Amino acid sequence: MSAGSLSSMIDIVFLLIIFFVVTASFDREQIDAEVALPTVDSAAIKSLPPQRLMVNVLTDGSVKLGFLHLPAEEVAYRLSGLMRSQEAGTDTVLIVSGDRDTPHRHISAVMNAAAQAGFSQVRINAEVKMEGK
Amino acid sequence: MRIPTISEPEDSNSMSAMTDVVFLLLIFFIVTMSGYVEMTLLETSLPTASGASSATVDLQNSVRIELSATGEYIISGVPQSLESLTRLLRRYQRLMPDAEFLLQCDPDSKHHQLVTLLGDLARHNLKNVKLLKS
Lengths: 133, 134
What we know:
The structure holds 2 protein chains of 2 kinds. By secondary structure, chain A is α/β, with parallel strands linked by helices.
């Protein structure tokens, strides 16, 4: 194999590695850039549930669900819609990624909306405080 | 007929390939390292009405923790600092590991206060946590 074809093969291999790393960490991408997660010292549950729906709650109470930016009053309707269309089921775990400064009333409103929509499990997302930080 | 000979690749070619690889490695490390944040999921229940749950709650085996808007943790009407709360949770872990913790948050309390409390409860292996409607 000539040096030219080897280098292009290495190029392709590295591009594939980058592609897989970026796509595999998509769950991190689901956390909105505007959300500064609260930190905790210890990690309780690290593994992500297989059926999950991540909801970002901003400081003003608006919610980001994937690429959708929803006002607070539309959250219940949207979550119910997900349940009706079977994109989410009763075994789907709702992961609430709230900004650290979000007033609890907004978090509570999202949780109430989820309960009304038929979700039965909820987890609260937090960032684990790294050593030396 | 003369067969044309293939000339040896020049040094500049191998240099450009190496630069390609170096840049790819650089991008790879930037992408993987810059945004790395370890996350955890804290377990709780969906909010239940405080009145409804009190009918089914074993009062002897339940602890009610209130979070005030000013960031205080109140247990049985007594405000606790984070240090004394941790001490209390350590005691509960030893004496009442299956106790039910009912969390009542003020609507104006900040989310990080609840997360700190949930993290503390999880650290002490106290898993029976219920969030009450605020």
